[in-house]
Design goal:
GO terms for molecular function: ATP binding; CMP kinase activity; dCMP kinase activity. With 223 residues, the protein is of the alpha/beta class. It is built from 10 helices and 8 strands. The chain is globular and about 45 Å long. Bound molecules: cytidine-5'-monophosphate. The site of cytidine-5'-monophosphate has 14 residues, from helix 2, helix 5 and helix 9.
Length: 223
């Protein structure tokens, strides 16, 4: 008997990270941040001196990732350990996100991470955050959400986060990076970003976090 899964897919900056953490906490379910696995693959490759176009070597890196996800206090992001080292800050940079989207175009790298993602499916249930959770990793999930927002709004959110973190960027730059990453994620042949046929699409443009959470809970039939 497989545990229940709610998949939440969508582009970067759509609020998926925040929403899936809140959903998982509310339901008392496990959480899979699949983007972290692609980010970790990119980071581990960099540290091991593996070029981002060396597909066979990247597969070895992905398959051999020594990663631990440690739960933290409610409301805080899960702590991510790579070979025991806290790499949370290192994997959250724009550059690491960009590199992640480059390794994520490779089918063989995706295959190397597939079972690791499915292993997160445990009782009482799983909230899975990513790009292909509903289409590839958990195609049988009873509840699939596709969370989106306009590129401008996503750029604005990301810009505010970066400002708060003291990073000096321009909104135009952030918007451009979001467009480039969207383009790459949507137009790749391996598991492109798109809503599953049976996904409920929620557009969070102009909505507060609480409103989005309410819609997701309603979609999950738990409202
Ligand atoms: O969601 P996050 O920004 O952490 O994801 C980083 C990158 O990893 C994405 O831009 C995407 O290319 C890739 N990714 C993916 N499939 C997933 C999750 C993330 O291809 N399920």
């Amino acid at each position: 008997q497989l545990a229940a899964v709610i998949t939440v897919d969508g582009p970067g900056g759509s609020g998926k990270g925040t929403i899936t953490q809140m959903l998982a906490r509310k339901l008392g379910w496990h959480l899979l941040d699949s983007g972290a696995l692609y980010r970790l693959t990119a980071l581990a490759a960099e540290r091991q001196g593996v070029a981002l176009d060396n597909e066979p070597a990247l597969v070895v890196v992905a398959a051999g990732l020594d990663v631990t996800f440690e739960p933290t206090a409610p409301g805080e992001p899960t702590k991510v350990l790579l070979a025991g080292e806290d790499v949370n800050a290192a994997i959250r940079t724009e550059q690491c996100g960009n590199n992640a989207s480059k390794v994520a175009v490779m089918q063989s790298v995706r295959d190397a991470l597939l079972q690791r993602q499915r292993d997160f499916r445990k009782a009482p249930g799983l909230v899975a955050d990513g790009r292909d959770m509903g289409t590839v990793v958990f195609p049988d999930a009873p509840v699939k959400i596709f969370l989106t927002a306009s590129a401008e709004e996503r750029a604005q959110r990301r810009f505010s986060q970066l400002l708060q973190a003291g990073v000096d960027v321009s909104i135009a730059n952030v918007l451009e990076e979001i467009r480039v990453r969207d383009e790459r994620d949507m137009n790749r042949s391996a598991a492109p970003l798109k809503p599953a046929d049976d996904a409920q699409v929620i557009d969070s443009t102009g909505l507060s976090i609480e409103e989005v959470l309410g819609r997701c809970m309603a979609a999950a039939g738990q409202a």
